[in-house]
Amino acid sequence: MLVKIEDSDETVIKDYQTLSDVEYDEGSSNHVIFQAEPKQSRWNHIVDLDSFFTRAYSYHQNHGFLCMLLQEIFELNQFAFIVALSAYLAHGVNYEKLFHRGATKTTMNEVILPLSECIGNFIWITWILLLIAMAVFALKFIRGVYQIIQFWDIKQFYNIALGIRDKEVDTITWNEVQARIKVAQLQHRMCVDKRELTELDIYHRILRQKNYIIALANKRLLPPRIDIPLVGEEVYWTKTLCYNMQWLLFWSPWSPFENRFNLREEYKQVSLRQELATQLGRHVLYLAFVNLIFAPLILLWQILYAFFYYADLFRRDPAKVGLRNWSLYALLYLRHFNELDHEVADRLTKAHKAATRYVAAFSSPLTTLIASHVSFISGSIMAVFIALTLYDEDVLSVEHVITLISGLGVIVAICRAMQPDENASWNTESLLSAVVLHTHYLPADWQGHAHTKRIRKKFEQLFQYRVVGLVEELLSPIVTPYILWRCIYPKSLDIIDFFRNFTVTVVGVGDVCSFAQMDIKRHGHPDWHNEQEASDANQYSQAEDGKVELSLVHFKMTNPMWVPPLSAMEFVSDVEQYNVSNSMLNFPAGKSAPMQRESRRLVRLSDSVLSPSGFTNQQLRYTIYDSVGQSVMYLHGVNKNKSSVADEDTEQQD
């Protein structure tokens, strides 16, 4: 507190001394003014910046407070509706009347029982399930209220600290929001450990846990791989297993992290690795046992939710069930370090059409012939029934006619989805190159073998049928306990070593995965660098598939104002210079002609928009990013990789 004595000479006391020690003229008119310090901002020194920045990102991606409020309300309503509807279908419908085949017409009132009669039909199992459902609903309600309170604070942060009104949330980009957060840090000091925040600091806060999961996948500790008889090795990664691993490693009271941003000290000591591995293994077994106990309830919920969610989709467009989509494993394997959800979704959306064309090139002629024949027979029968119905609508009153027409329609739609496009390209190398243009990852043993069954099978693990993903999720409550026991438990020591060896402390951020620092000297792959600039990484510490290099290029292109370390800046500069040089026009021999044409087109785009001062806007940056990503892939990856798979040369095209 500042004490000021005002008189004719206006003497200011700068030291905290008592008033009795101050000498002043008694004849003058004196008075004492107490001037309070400025009030601190409500966002000063936020303890949990991880949660705060994550909510700020979710607020932007979910289109503001009103949409998030309605989403929470609708999720609660959806849960209650599924439970109530399931209970009513089990005990409140007179199925004898509904399926009565008498001559009299059945009314709705005869089929649907009153609520009191429905409740009277409940059995003890129903009451137990309803009590469990009400307990879950209460927890979801409490969580929803807490989330709304937290997001109301984020709304105030956007409105006041960032100067973004509610109606502007949909029109402003995340990069612009991030730039305003950096400015707000200077005024509000949200992080007190450092004055200025960088883009990487914000990404570290939002993606701390996801970066660890991505690194675990890159080092093949996750996801589990299981050998299935007559099928071979399959990658198993579902939402249920992902949630269990996150709870085990980050959220549980015995996780390696003492809070959201600090690894426990004992996990940093090599002398305790065996003891910690034993503890982690014991917790994995406990978690597997809990999953086994609740498996019937979770399985029941999965079936009910899938039925109500997919029933309308299957009725409207059955062919969509047979379409392919990127698997959860693809979202993990193809994701760069420090890549936000909307960024990876944008890349994979762009790659979807090319991936569909690549997989379609493997369509079996035998399967195509069978699907075409079945489609013709089913379509012909359906056409006859439709023609009869147009002539006389009483045909629909014949038993099972509507069911037959609907079933034939589903068969026709599925068979047509199995038939390849007549105008599709059959050059698998060029098709796979078009996919890599957006996914950016091409294992060395895939190059030159895009036409083989082995590569197709590996690619289908990334780009699977939607119905396969649905079946995996339905079976996950049963399979997850086994996976935890047989696959995760034996890797307890490797996981402990991973957290000790690949965790670094960053000032103002806390403990983060060292791979997320994108240090190409420590984690770079030697095949991606010249001999003069080779990384110091060994096989254990290096990131596979050039993930650190590609992540570095991606992050720099997405955040052009970010200033990386000198070694990283030199690597990015080399890639940019190569991208706009004439060397791309002289593409290495042996690459497909479509790939050369696409690369030349991207170079021309880069030449037209690249300037010494950087990139002008988000759209142009992403255009250059696609080109740079492809350049880096072939310049530092495939073109320099010396490995070969000689025994695959004799594989036959499917």
Automatic annotation (TrEMBL):
Parts of the chain that traverse the membrane: 122-142, 284-308, 370-391, 398-419
Location in the cell: Preautophagosomal structure membrane
Major location (coarse): membrane
GO biological process, one term: autophagy of mitochondrion
Keywords, alphabetical: Autophagy, Lipid transport, Membrane, Transmembrane, Transmembrane helix, Transport
InterPro entries on file: Autophagy-rel_prot_9
UniProt xrefs under Pfam families: ATG9
Membrane among keywords: yes
Membrane topology summary: Multi-pass membrane protein
GO CC annotation terms, alphabetical: autophagosome; phagophore assembly site membrane
Function: Phospholipid scramblase involved in autophagy. Cycles between the preautophagosomal structure/phagophore assembly site (PAS) and the cytoplasmic vesicle pool and supplies membrane for the growing autophagosome. Lipid scramblase activity plays a key role in preautophagosomal structure/phagophore assembly by distributing the phospholipids that arrive through ATG2 from the cytoplasmic to the luminal leaflet of the bilayer, thereby driving autophagosomal membrane expansion.
Family, similarity comment: Belongs to the ATG9 family.
Protein name (Swiss-Prot/TrEMBL): Autophagy-related protein 9
